[in-house]
Write a structure and sequence with these properties.
The structure holds two protein chains of two kinds.
Chain A (H helix, E strand, L loop, with lengths): L1 E10 L2 E7 L1 H6 L5 E5 L7 E9 L4 E7 L3 H7 L6 E2 L1 E6 L10 E7 L3 H13 L3 E8 L8 H6 L3 E6 L6 E2 L3 H9 L6 E5 L2 H11 L6 E4 L15 E4 L2 E4 H4 L2 E3 L5 H7 L4 H18 L1
Parallel strand pairs in A: 8-9, 8-12, 9-10, 10-11, 12-13
Antiparallel strand pairs in A: 1-2, 1-6, 2-5, 3-4, 3-7, 4-5, 13-16, 14-15
Chain B lengths: L11 E2 L2 H4 L7 E3 L2 H8 L9 H5 L6 H9 L3 H11 L3 H7 L21 H15 L16 E5 L3 H12 L3 E5 L8 H4 L8 H13 L3 E3 L10 H6 L4 E4 L5 E2 L12 E3 H10 L17 E5 L3 H12 L4 E5 L11 H9 L3 E3 L2 E8 L5 E14 L5 E5 L5 E4 L2 E4 L3 E2 L3 H4 L26 E3 L2 H4 L4 H20 L1
Parallel strand pairs in B: 3-4, 3-6, 4-5, 6-18, 8-16, 9-10, 9-16, 10-11
Antiparallel strand pairs in B: 1-2, 7-17, 12-13, 13-14, 13-15
Helix pairs in contact in B: 2-4, 4-5, 4-7, 5-7, 6-7, 8-10, 8-17, 12-13
The chains are: A alpha/beta, B alpha/beta.
The structure holds flavin-adenine dinucleotide (2 copies), iron/sulfur cluster (SF4) and FE2/S2 (inorganic) cluster.
């Protein structure tokens, strides 16, 4: 059992949990994730490690309510326990001195990208970050990301805050401006990562994405998370989650994410009905 | 000598039609009368070939005699002397290639049903004695710490044996429950999870501390365990990484590895969706590729989850199938259809990325290969298409490389198995032993237990020297 030390709602349907997990906090590195299970009936779902504190023995995750498990998770309070919290899983992000790195975060992707930007900045890279959300109410951690970047550009799809439009707009301008960009890191919804990779491809700038296929164990045991990168099948949980965005078969990833749409809807409706009855 | 009785006592099973729709245990076990009737057939051959056929050398005539004499506690004692998980082995051992194959009555086609009797004694113990450790005194603590990694049959037996010898044992397990393949792979209808958990409870009752949710190699490495005060480590992490054929279309929606399909169904209880949150997709026409126990289990799970037709596609013929004989028979009774001498060439998908068919080759058999079985050869031009909407690939597994990648000096073979001494389980790394599927590749429960037992003995000697 793992205790929730602290929780906070960061934006509409987006929550932060700090979990007591000293062993994981000691080993976590930027880019790794945990697999959680709420209780005996629960599904195992992966969440990226958004922050950690070795001294306090805590690991922070940020998640968006999108279905049954994240909906149920959002109902928990500080002091409550979740049954399972496994990690740190996956290969840590490659941190090195690249030069100028553009970090592009879409939606809840700002949480996983912040520790990566921090580690890259500490290595002496120049960090330009682009933070995009659908609207102002879904934006969070703007200050946190700014504090680990040399420059920050914010966009909203509807123009309620920052620049109006999507993240690929400023990304393309940066690449066209003639400034040398050595690496792009894009984390967010699959479709956003796909378009970031398409944007950078003509410029030949290496683009790293963090893939989010459906997982079960997260340890290389089931093959549920398989993706195709450069024509070779990879298990995201042990070979990734970071991959070269120009090599990813995006259509396969997008199709595989939709395997359980019907079941997910059924499960979500059941839980909503059940929770509705209790409250 | 009286004339040998060649009427093997049958064991009651759920009717095939009924059991095809539920996950309850298929085989129902012997009654006391049946057990005694079967036990009375034993010739009590003083040469006990059966004992030599058992990888852990159970005194088989001895326990059978105790059943006949109505001395059940004695039968339990004899079994447990060599086998700490008899309720499991009686159900899942491939008896026809082990103890029963060499039984003196096997030549006459009616070996004693040793597995069924073993199961009967273990079930008697569970209902009448609880998870008691018959007659054992608590050992004198040695104060020595040992780490066991992986809570499958190998890890559980190593942990139990070392704890019984007085060592302080911590067992690290990656998943959220202990039991390994017995929990996530073998389905409820063949091995009730309650029985596995009773064995796990017995192991903890010996003082073994189980740390779940602990992926060794990630949260802690072997070197770190040794630095933190563990004097020896037993590795029993199995062969849990699924293999694929690397043919076109293998990543289409609706194509599962057997590990994923069985894990969703058994470990995550997707057969009770939506009471349990984890979903599983089951098609109407399902193909399972392979010929082992994993294949039979996957096919029979798909049937129970409502598939209309379930096919097993195997590239050799039935005699070469490595599955337990009894499970092949059970699968046939339940209506699973066997497409033998057939092998997939590629998978065909529709525009939304779901599998709709398999293009297969017909196969012929050539000269024997390294495994001693005749090599399957694709017949050019024999390709044909099968319409299916779900596939389970049961193409074998190999050890997960997570630990080997993060450990200095641990030697592995080109198959990813860990190199270890055959009799002691000692690896090339100081203070580290290994046993079970991680050393042999996918094998059997009893061979994993046997290896663990030998390693525990060697670890104990090392700790006392
Ligand atoms: C490595 C990795 C890191 C992730 N990090 C984060 C994070 O930091 N914050 C965050 O909000 N989300 C993250 N996700 C996505 C998150 O796991 C899913 O949103 C979550 O599983 C949805 O579960 P649900 O039951 O609430 O929704 P569901 O209704 O079950 O699913 C909604 C959608 O989420 C995806 N999904 C469903 N089940 C799983 C599963 N078991 N594993 C992965 N994806 C699934 C599917 O595409 C599905 O269509 C990450 C995913 C991966 C693979
Ligand atoms: C579906 C199926 C059916 C089978 N049917 C039969 C049968 O009928 N009869 C028979 O004799 N055999 C059968 N087998 C084979 C048998 O189950 C195995 O040979 C046996 O379980 C091997 O035991 P083990 O302890 O070596 O490994 P496993 O049972 O695989 O256990 C290994 C354990 O280690 C854990 N682990 C792995 N990596 C780590 C890590 N890094 N850190 C911590 N823990 C880790 C795993 O989660 C697992 O719990 C079957 C196998 C399958 C998959
Ligand atoms: S453990 Fe297996 S091989 Fe040994 S007697 Fe029992 S069923 Fe036979
Ligand atoms: S989630 Fe099971 S192998 Fe990656």
């Amino acid at each position: 059992m793992f205790r929730i030390i602290y929780r906070e709602t960061l934006a509409t349907k987006i929550h932060l949990f700090k979990i007591e997990a000293p062993a994981i906090a000691r080993k976590a590195l930027a880019g790794q994730f945990v697999v959680i299970r709420i209780d005996e009936r629960g599904e195992r779902i992966p969440l990226t490690i958004a922050d950690w504190d070795g001294k306090e023995g805590s690991v922070t995750v940020v998640f968006m309510e999108v279905g049954a498990t994240t909906f149920r998770l959002a109902l928990l309070k500080a002091g409550d326990f979740i049954a399972d919290f496994v990690g740190p899983l996956g290969v840590p992000s490659h941190i090195d001195k690249f030069g100028t790195v553009v970090c592009v975060a879409g939606g809840v992707g700002v949480a996983p990208i912040t520790p990566i930007a921090r580690a890259l900045k500490e290595k002496g890279n120049k960090i330009t970050s682009i933070l995009g959300a659908r609207n102002k109410d879904l934006l969070f951690w703007e200050d946190k990301l700014r504090s680990v970047s040399h420059q920050l550009i914010v966009t909203t799809d509807d123009g309620t805050y920052g620049r109006k439009g999507v993240v690929t707009g400023p990304l393309k301008e940066l690449l066209e401006s003639g400034e040398k960009v050595d690496r792009v890191i894009a984390i967010g919804p699959s479709i956003m990562m796909k378009f970031c990779a398409q944007t950078t491809q003509p410029f030949g700038v290496k683009t790293i994405v963090s893939l989010n296929p459906i997982m079960v164990d997260g340890t290389g045991m089931c093959g549920c998370c398989r993706v195709s990168v450069g024509g070779v099948t990879k298990f995201t949980c042990v070979d990734g989650p970071d991959f070269d965005g120009h090599q990813v078969d995006w259509d396969l990833l997008l199709a595989r994410q939709r395997i359980y749409l019907d079941e997910e809807k059924r499960s979500f409706e059941q839980w909503q009905a059940q929770m509705g009855k209790c409250s | 000598m009286a004339k040998a009785n060649l009427n093997r006592e049958p064991m009651a099973k759920q009717d095939p039609k009924t059991r095809g729709k539920n996950f309850n245990e298929v085989a129902l076990g012997y009654s006391a009368e049946q057990a005694k009737a079967e036990a009375s057939r034993c010739l009590q051959d003083p040469k006990h070939p059966c004992t030599d056929g058992c990888p852990v050398e159970i005194d088989i005539p001895g326990f059978i005699k105790a059943v006949l004499d109505d001395n059940m506690p004695e039968a339990v004692r004899i079994l447990k002397d060599k086998n700490s998980l008899p309720g499991i082995c009686g159900r899942v051992c491939p008896q026809e290639t082990q103890c029963e194959q060499v039984c003196s009555l096997a030549k006459k086609g009616a070996p004693i049903a040793i597995g069924r009797l073993e199961r009967y004694v273990a079930d008697w113990e569970r209902t009448n004695m609880g998870a008691l450790n018959p007659g054992a005194e608590p050992p004198r603590p040695t104060g020595k710490q040992v780490a066991v990694v992986g809570a499958g049959p190998a890890g559980l037996v190593a942990a139990a044996d070392l704890a019984k010898l007085g060592h302080s044992v911590t067992l690290f397990e990656a998943l959220h429950v202990a039991g390994g393949v017995l929990m996530y792979g073998i389905p409820e209808f063949r091995l009730p999870k309650e029985i596995v958990q009773a064995e796990v409870a017995y192991v903890t009752s010996l003082g073994v501390k189980i740390e779940l949710d602990s992926v060794v190699g990630k949260v802690v490495t072997l070197d770190e365990l040794l630095e933190s005060g563990y004097l020896a480590i037993f590795l029993g992490t199995g062969a849990g990484a699924p293999m694929f054929m690397n043919i076109p279309g293998e990543n289409l929606n609706g194509i599962y590895s057997a590990n994923e399909f069985l894990t969703r169904v058994n470990l995550m209880k997707a057969y009770q969706f939506p009471e349990y949150d984890t979903p599983v997709f089951v098609g109407r026409r399902v193909a399972v590729i392979g010929g082992g126990n994993v294949t039979m289990d996957s096919a029979r799970c798909a049937l129970r989850l409502g598939a209309d037709e379930v096919y097993i596609i195997y590239r050799r013929s039935e005699v070469e199938m490595p599955a337990r004989r009894e499970e092949v028979e059970n699968a046939k009774e339940e209506g699973i259809q066997f497409k033998l001498l057939t092998n997939p060439k590629r998978y065909i998908g529709n525009e939304s990325g779901w599998v709709v068919g398999i293009e297969c080759y017909e196969m012929g058999l050539g000269e024997p290969d390294e495994s001693g079985r005749r090599r399957p050869i694709a017949k050019e031009g024999s390709e044909f298409i099968m319409d299916v909407d779900m596939v389970v690939a049961a193409l074998g597994t190999r050890p997960n490389p997570l630990i080997a990648q993060t450990t200095s000096e641990l030697k592995t073979t080109k198959w990813g198995t860990v190199v270890a001494d055959e009799t002691t389980g000692k690896t090339m790394k100081d203070k580290v032993w290994a046993g079970g599927d991680i050393v042999t590749g996918a094998a059997t429960v009893i061979s994993a237990m046997g290896a663990a037992r030998r390693a525990a003995r060697d670890i104990d000697e090392y700790l006392r020297s």
